Structures are given as structure tokens and as C-alpha cells.
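Internal QA ticket QA-208
Title: Verify multi-chain structure generation after dependency bump
Assignee: T.L.

Test input:
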Amino acid sequence: MKTEENNLINPNLSSKGLDIDQKLTSQVYPMVDISVNIKGLKLDNPLILASGILDENGYTMKSILDHGAGAVVTKSIGMEERTGYRPPVVAEVNGGLLNAVGLPNPGIENFGEEVKIALKAGKPVIGSIFGSNTEEFLHLAKKMETYGAKAIELNLSCPHVKGFGSEVGSDPDLVEDIVKELKEKIKIPVFAKLSPNVTDIVEIAKAADRADALVLINTVRGMAIDIYARKPILTNTYGGLSGRSIKPVGVRYVYEVKKETGKTVIGVGGISDCTDALEYIMAGSSAVQIGTALYTEGKDVFNRISDDLRNYMKAEKFETVEEMVGVAL
Amino acid sequence: MIKSRVTRIERQTPTVVTLFFKWDQKVLPGQFIMVWAPGVGEVPMSLSHTDGEKGITIKSYGPTTEAIIKTKKDEYIFFRGPYGKPFVQSHGKKLIIGGGSGMASLRPLIDMDSYGVISARNKSEILFPSLFSPGKAVIMTDDGTAGKKGYPVDALKEMDLNKFDMIYVCGPEMMLNTVFQYIRDKGCKAEFSLERLMKCGIGVCDSCSISGFQLCRDGPVFDLNTLNNMEEFGRWKLTESGRRVKIGT
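Actual output:
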């Protein structure tokens, strides 16, 4: 029995490489520099592990960094321990994954050890946090800073947990207040991850104006039904869609927000090869995040995209990533 | 989601049943599927029958397994997979060491040349003893209600392990660790199939990870050398929330 799901387990989605002369690019080109600096956060390369994928256990985060990621974003951590939803928490769909994991996390007090283990890789860990009000976000951010996180990512966009994520992130006044408070009291850079599931993302982006960077986009709300069970597959019914199918949505949001606000943007949504990463960069992203491609491509995806990025830059005569940011605008 | 009608049901013990179904898919011993009870939940299950007719051998330990175990003949079971890396199949003399439901994933490996150490908490959970040739299986129970009272490692201490070409082990991590500690420096070839909390089954959620490896994708079967380099094996695991706890507490 062949099913779509089966096709997705081993999809032929590996990086196709770019249409460039291999003779030109097979040498080492020291003048190509793929390192980036996002408001003081220095990365060897612009490829960051997105929050929510393989980032609960410190050893896993260290392994992802050892496999070539420029940085990792942790699973979103809140004030209290949460077990999340009962499986099924993911559904494999055409072009990506639907998930509603339910923000499982050990609570901020129990997360220091994981950050410590991950930091042994010698690369930055970005602490993702979620709360329901400004005080909680501040407490969580201070803790993450103490644990050694090199930046904070505010989860203002988880689409499937009541009282958190996008429920907070769709209130411009609250977003403004949280960002303002953190910027006054936290030394490390603060990034705000926004939801595409809003009427006007530019309004929210402007509310988060004091953040060092905006992370765009979180997953797109969706659902899947099994027609023989005649029921929604996810225990939570609704989930967030990620993977290749949302890339054009993400690129458009990055482009629009960059154009309207000029803010520093980190792009995320369906990036699985170098072309995807470059589209996001040219739309205005200073760095990009990769999540669902870990499922389709495996951990080698980071080194593969870095190599392809260097080759592209040499062939197209770019010396730094920064030169390419927003060139399509 | 893949679906298939249950073709027959076989009761193994008072608490354990095997559901058989048709699935035209190559599956190797050690691989698993995520079985879904619609509206209830989803659990990883090793295939106890991998050739031709497929089967899963289940004991009820929660609402989802309780719902799956109640599936009747001709009703659908829903699942996705197969997932995970299988056992490397070896020729020659094999020693098969299974703890509790761990015997389910080892079952397809049993042949005429296999010796077994079958362990469980009590008599009603001893699986597949009759598949071994007479005299080739040792039964160990925690409470002594069947075979000898004790743990698999107690049985190993009375065996010459060097006569086996391959040792396969599956069961709870505490048991795997005791066996691992005993055989690690004895020059044996061995593979261990690990059991950890699993949510997604496809290498994204990080629930089943151990020292950077995802059990669902890089495992669940690991060789001695890989286990040797896993700091977390037998020591630490993450709970459903992701809280780090010591194994056995």
C-alpha cells in the first residue's frame, strides 16, 4: 500500500545544488564569508535551528551545533512544567508537517542544565520563552540570560495553546509592553517571533519595534482529517503547518515586513535547501532558521546549505551574506 | 495514516494479545510503527511479525493501548511507518534476551539456532517461550512465578557468551543497562533495542533522544560501541515535559 505518508518518509527532497559551474567553485575561496552578526549575536553561518524541533535535550542541541548549525533556538520554555498534548502531536501531510505538541517544557527552573550541555558545542544558544504577561516574560528572559543564552526569542506566535503564543502576540499593546520591558532590563539581544495567523502582521511588527530582530514566521494554522477514522488526526484537532508548503507564505511576510518597517528580520518557514535560504535572505532576512527540514533532510542539512551558499556567493560575486540581504526589495 | 483490517487475533498470555493485519510493505525485525486509536492517542509499537502477515503484540498499559487491544477482527487499525533502523541480521548462533514486551520486537529473529533468555515481572507476561527449540530458552521472572526468580543478567552469568555469534537485547533501559554492563568487556557482538518515551516517531520532537541520537530515527537499535559512547544511556532520560530525571527514579 503506497500512501502519501510513505512517500514523505524518504522523499527525494535533498538539496539539488545550484546551477553554477563546478570548476569555478571547487576550489577554496577565502574571500567568501558566510558569518553574520545579528545585533551583536555573532554566528559562523546564518543557519539557525528553529524553535520546537530537536531542542528539548541539551545533548541533541549540542549535536545539531556540531552538525553545522550557526546557533540553536531552544524549545519554548515557560514558568511551569507542562506535559503538552497526548500524541498524535504530528501528522505528516503533503509538503510538510502539521504539529500541535502543546508547549511541553520542564519549566524554566529545570532548564539550566540543558542550556549548559548545549553550550559545550561552543556556539550560541538562543532561549525561546513563552508567558502570558510581561512579568512572566521578564522572569523567563532573565533566567535564560543567567543560564548563558546569547539571545532571547519571544514566542508570540504558538498557534495552538490557549492563553499563550499567538493569543499574546496578536495584542499589539501587550507585545509593545513586553518588548519594551525586556529591552530595558536584559542585556542580550531580544528577538520577537511573530505569527502569520493575524490580519495585519505589519501592525504587530511595528508594536515589536524595539526588539533587536523579528523572527518571521511561525507555523500556519491548519488541520487534517482521516477519512476512514472520520476524525481529526491531531489530538488537539488544530495544529501548525510547517515545511516546504509554507515557504512562499514566509518569504512574502519577510518581504512585506522588511519593506514596511526596515527592521532586522530572521526568516523561517519551509527552508530545506540553499535556494530557499537565499530567497529569504534576498527578501530581507539577515539570518534564517531551519526546522522541518531536519525531518526531510536530516542533520546534514546545515553543512549542505553552508557549502552551497559559499559556492553561490563565489559564483555570483558576493563576499558577505549582508550584501545579499534584501536585494530583491 | 495507513489503515488495515485486523485479520485475526491471538491471545499470548492473559494480558497480552497479538493483532494480525495485511500490509504490503517491507518491514525488518526491530522496526516499529506508530499506532493510532482515533480520538484516544498514538503509541509506538514494534512489529512482532514482519514476514508476510504483519502483527503487533500488545499489553494494555494506558488508554491508548487499551483502545488498540480492544480492536476486533475485521475492524481497522490505523498506523504510520515503518520507522527506525532494524537489527542487523546475523547468521549462526544467536542469544535473544527479552524483557517484558521487549520480546515482541525480538520475536522475528527467533530461529532454530536461537537461544533465549525471556524475562518478565511475572508468569502472565512471559512471551513466546514455545518458539525456541526445547531446552534452548531460560525463563526469569521478578517474582519467581515462572522459571527462575531473578533478572536476565543472572541467567547470563551461568552461560558461556562466547559461543554466540550475536546477542540481541530488548527491554526496559534498566535491564538493558545491566546486561550491557555485564557483556561490554566480554568481546561479544551485541545489539540493543532501546525503549524511551516517543511522541512524533519521525525525529523532530526530541522526546526519545539519547546523547544526541534520536531513538526513533537513528535507533531504536544500537550496537555496543554506540552505547559505550552514550553518556545518558542507563543514567538520564527526559520526562513527558522534558524534565531531566535519573533512570530508575
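Spot checks passed. Confidence is low (pLDDT under 50) at residues 1-16 of chain A.
Status: verified.
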